[in-house]
């Protein structure tokens, strides 16, 4: 799984319509809420829902670029992402994908998992499966929004899939810093997803080959 | 007497009646108490057992109820933990919430009939089947999340307008909802967020209370649930149900009592009602489990038992009454006797008291008479004692006379021979022999008298034994007794021969005269035993350390009775001629010498007396002191004082014969005068003299010449103690021989030196 992630990025970068040689970058820091440590029966929750507000745990944000009007065109080939289950947890627990991406849910544990989601954005139930299940159970996420992933067998397992209408997105580090490169020049909205109820937005003027620094307070 | 007895009879009848009444009262009291205690105890036991049984049954019911609730709760818990339910609520999926829940609860959900109407089928299936009527989810605020249209979640029962709550409970809670005639249970289960631990929603499930197990129903037990003043109880008439509802409602208003028991009635039959709150601490209305246990059988049993106990008590009472009647009769018998006796006694006492005055007078008279009689009696007694003394004295005197006569026989006999036959005197040897016999016999007579004196006192230590030659003794005895066995019997025309058979025997230590007397007595006895004549054999022989002396006759012999008793004093077969003392004296003397007497006798053949005399130390003292004239080398001047001329002459002749110078005096006064005037080496005086006694005179002489020894002659020598006579040096008993006189002289002079 780890070996495949770079390919995903490469693919994203390759299909981006911006400059190929001089990278266009926005970097900065997103202020994230403090980590909550709720452990139930020694099991760490990677996603915490509190008063209807869903955050990842430890907190991470997603910074992504959106057009002011319309949307980025759909990619030529269907992007594929993976959200694996390892040690009875989702890896990684927070996964941003572009609309139309096919997300695979490989099971790396020596146990059954039953990944399902009742989120209105994408309702699915993969049923029980073992690691050797082929093809790898997968879902295509074709509507934007937040999808909460659960396991019917391991009730503490939580995962978040952020379905975005852009191919330009990045997950911040746990300290909030991010670097978003390969951007096309132009006027855009730069958004920072902090939690399900808190998305920060800035208007940005992206210049080709330049590096901007934008912090979200 | 008869009047008293009647009175006593009436008294005892009253006593008997009272005793009977008292015992009856006690018996009744005891019986009643016992019956009461037994009945109470048995009823208590019965009730206790019943209570235990009902309690355990009630507990069983509660357990069934709890199990039922637990089963429902278990389903609910499983449901509310399901990640799908959580996902539906938390992940904004409420639209599929009921669908998911119905999937999970599908076994409990009421079935829909073919006609499409939602109906409940509570009576179908097993008794223990849970019949869910409906369920609803509540959101975080306690409001009902409405099921989407067409979604099956059961119809809300009448009376449950809404299942909304003010706030979500932290844990499961049981509640009860009522309909007319129906009580439904409901359980609220909170849905707790696994992330935050807070209730985010809740599930409310309404279901029918469990039906009773068939076993309990068969026993007539009724059970139901009470809530909000309504009681659901199957098989109970409405009127009773309403009353029971009121009863339980009143009982449940007491908040401190979550459970209890009381009596109840259904259709007139008694029941024990037990109740217990099922949902303590719930925010819903309280629900109470009510169970009714039929008491009809127990009450009937109790009645039966009561009658049994009362019957037993009655039997006991009757038995007690009979027993008390019998006992009172038995117990009053001795009292009746006592009463009769005491009445008789009273009568006798009256008579006795009346007679007492007379008796007192009589007593005085009789007392006087008695005193007189006593005085007479004492006098008589005195006389009898005196007579007894005289008799004893007489017997003794007779004994003494007997011995004395024996001693006198040879004296008289030989002296007669000498007097009548002058020719004998010419034969000097024969004459000397006769005189010696006379002398010996006279000495024996003197010893008889001395023994008479000894009769009064114990055997003295100074009873001097000397060596006695048996052969001489036997020959002397035969010779001494010759006048009796030869001359007197020949005069009667019979012939008695005495044949000595003498073997050599060492000398025996003893009193010669006493032993001679023994032999004499035995010979006399033998002579008396042979009135027709015969032979007397006198034998001596030695047998070891004993000298044996046998006197055997050929006389009449003795019967065994006589043989055994002949040695006893005063036992005689000779009638007036005997004293009964001869053989007893023999026995006494032999015993004194340490010997034994054996008697062998056969009737018609004769008797043998066998004397055994010990021989020890017989030689030592043989002829120890034989003082003679030669020892008295000195010629002494001797004053002899005696009032009797014969004695005075004898003494004078004897002393002069020994070569002494002798002066005589007739009385004490004369003696003193001569003593004062003359010179004497020694004084011999009689004791009893007229004027002045010998001892008085001796005392006076001692004052004059203390160095001159005085010999006192006395007939009572052995009665006197020398220490009582200060002037006397030697006591000499009468009769006095020359030999004893010489000894006394020697002793007196030794004293004087």
Question: Helices and strands in order, then pairings?
Answer:
The complex is a heterodimer of chains A (217) and B (753).
Chain A: H1 4-15, E1 25-29, E2 39-40, E3 43-44, E4 47-50, E5 53-56, E6 62-67, E7 80-82, E8 84-86, E9 89-91, E10 94-98, E11 101-104, E12 115-117, E13 124-125, E14 138-141, E15 145-151, E16 158-164, E17 169-171, E18 177-180, E19 186-195, E20 198-206, E21 211-213
Parallel strand pairs in A: 1-21, 7-11, 10-16
Antiparallel strand pairs in A: 1-18, 2-3, 4-5, 6-17, 6-19, 8-9, 11-14, 12-13, 12-15, 15-16, 19-20
Chain B: H1 2-81, H2 83-90, H3 97-104, E1 132-138, E2 144-145, E3 173-179, E4 182-192, E5 199-207, H4 214-218, E6 222-227, E7 230-232, H5 238-253, E8 259-266, E9 269-277, E10 287-294, H6 296-420, H7 422-426, H8 428-454, E11 466-468, H9 470-480, H10 482-492, E12 496-502, E13 508-510, H11 512-529, E14 534-543, E15 546-552, H12 560-565, H13 582-592, E16 596-602, E17 606-614, E18 637-641, H14 645-657, E19 661-665, H15 668-677, E20 682-686, H16 694-704, E21 710-714, E22 730-733, H17 738-752
Parallel strand pairs in B: 12-14, 18-19, 18-20, 20-21, 21-22
Antiparallel strand pairs in B: 1-2, 1-5, 3-4, 4-5, 6-7, 6-10, 8-9, 9-10, 11-13, 14-15, 15-17, 16-17
Helix pairs in contact in B: 1-6, 6-8, 9-11, 11-13, 15-16
Strand order of the largest sheet of chain A: 10-16-15-12-13
User: Considering the protein shown, what is the CATH homologous superfamily of chain A?
Assistant: Cupredoxins -  blue copper proteins
Quick one: overall form of chain A? globular
Rounded to an integer in angstroms, the radius of gyration calculated over CA atoms of chain A is: 17 Å
How much of the sequence lies in strands of chain B comes to 15-25%
- In the CATH hierarchy, the architecture of chain A is Sandwich
Average pLDDT figure of chain A: 83
Judged by helices, strands and strand pairing, the structural class of chain A is mainly beta
Structural class, from helix and strand content of chain B?
alpha+beta
How many helical elements of chain A? 1
- Unreliable stretches covering 5 or more consecutive residues of chain A: 1-20
- Mean pLDDT across the residues of chain B is 79
Task: State the largest interface.
Answer: A-B, 19 and 17 residues
The named CATH superfamily of the domain at 462-614 in chain B: Histidine kinase-like ATPase, C-terminal domain
**Largest sheet composition of chain A:** 5 strands, mixed
User: What is the first-to-last residue Cα distance of chain A?
Assistant: 34 Å
Percentage beta strand of chain A? 35-45%
Q: What global shape of chain B is seen?
A: rod-shaped
Tell me the number of structural domains of chain A.
1
Q: Order of strands across the widest beta sheet of chain B?
A: 2-1-5-4-3
H/E order of the elements of chain A? HEEEEEEEEEEEEEEEEEEEEE
